[in-house]
């Protein structure tokens, strides 16, 4: 940055007790350049940093890649002098492709020196393949009392264009849909296995999950009474479900009115 004859620069991404070495050089529009010191060999400036107290959260990594995996994560660290209040973590534009299955209740207090691991899951089979793309870009926003930050998700487009294997179930139904008080998922398993029902909201937050042990050709029923696992009642609106088995899953939408 420049201000008339005063220039400033920044050295970033260092931690406490790192050793920093740097040179100073400048060039004008004509191509003339000068280095400091003016004469002789370059003599690097050097200093050792003391412990640095940051003024904002740190997030690592700032870009999460999904190449051949549907699951990833990033870590929010509080290395400031005070606790940080996280107001919300959510996919930007309410992307249906991105789920954040293990978020805490918000607002969430991140104590000084603590970290929060945010798990990210990519939903397969809901995107038309575009052969001109290698990666599809999604974003997750983190809102705190200090700042608003964005994490980039780079997703192999084939992961979300290929349909997953359909769960080994028969006689599957979701009724009533739309629903008011409760919705019932019924199915018959083709093998002995655990079957998990997961309900997500539009932001990809896991609201409810339940696992049932099913025998071969056993009829099962899972009821969701529109309450979150926290005990709060889910609002009217659109929700997504996953029914996971040993060899696949079923996904869909339900509406509470």
How is the main sheet built?
Answer: 5 strands, mixed
CATH homologous superfamily placement of the largest domain: Immunoglobulins
CATH architecture of the largest domain: Sandwich
Number of helices: 1
Termini gap: 55 Å
- The structure class reads mainly beta
How are strands sequenced across the largest beta sheet? 8-15-14-10-12
Overall average pLDDT: 79
Topology-level CATH name of the largest domain = Immunoglobulin-like
What oligomeric arrangement do these chains adopt? single chain
SSE order: EEEEEEEEEEEEEEEHEEEEEEE
Can you put this structure into words, describing what you see?
- By secondary structure, this protein is mainly beta.
- The protein folds into 3 domains: 2-48, no CATH class; 58-161, Sandwich (Immunoglobulin-like), CATH 2.60.40.10; 169-256, Immunoglobulin-like (Sandwich), CATH 2.60.40.1930.
- Helix content is 2%, strand content 50%.
- It contains 1 helix and 22 strands.
- The strands form 7 sheets. The chain has a 5-stranded mixed β-sheet with strand order 8-15-14-10-12. A 4-stranded antiparallel β-sheet has the order 7-9-13-11, with no helix packed on it. A 4-stranded antiparallel β-sheet has the order 19-18-21-22, with no helix packed on it.
- The longest helix has 5 residues, at 157-161.
- Mean pLDDT is 79; it is low at 126-133.
């Amino acid at each position: 940055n420049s201000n008339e004859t005063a220039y400033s620069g920044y050295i970033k991404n260092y931690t406490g007790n790192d050793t920093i070495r740097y040179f100073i050089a400048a060039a004008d529009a004509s191509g003339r350049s000068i280095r400091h010191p003016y004469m002789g060999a370059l003599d690097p400036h050097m200093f050792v940093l003391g412990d640095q107290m940051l003024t904002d959260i740190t997030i690592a990594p700032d870009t999460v890649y999904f190449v051949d995996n549907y699951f990833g994560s990033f870590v929010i660290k509080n290395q400031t002098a005070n606790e940080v209040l996280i107001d919300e973590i959510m996919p930007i534009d309410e992307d249906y492709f991105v789920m954040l299955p293990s978020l805490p209740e918000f607002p969430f207090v991140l104590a000084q020196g603590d970290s929060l691991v945010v798990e990210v899951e990519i939903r397969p089979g809901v995107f038309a393949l575009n052969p001109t793309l290698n990666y599809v870009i999604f974003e997750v926003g983190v809102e705190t009392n200090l700042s608003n930050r964005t994490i980039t998700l780079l997703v192999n487009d084939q992961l979300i264009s290929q349909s997953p294997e359909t769960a080994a179930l028969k006689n599957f139904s979701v009724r009533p849909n739309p629903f008011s008080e409760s919705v019932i998922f019924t199915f018959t398993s083709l093998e002995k296995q655990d079957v998990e029902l997961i309900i997500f909201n539009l932001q990809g937050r896991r609201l409810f999950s339940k696992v049932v042990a099913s025998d071969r050709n056993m009829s099962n029923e899972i009821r969701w009474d529109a309450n979150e696992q926290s005990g709060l009642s889910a609002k009217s609106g659109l929700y997504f479900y996953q029914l996971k088995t040993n060899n696949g899953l079923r996904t869909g939408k339900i509406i509470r009115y």
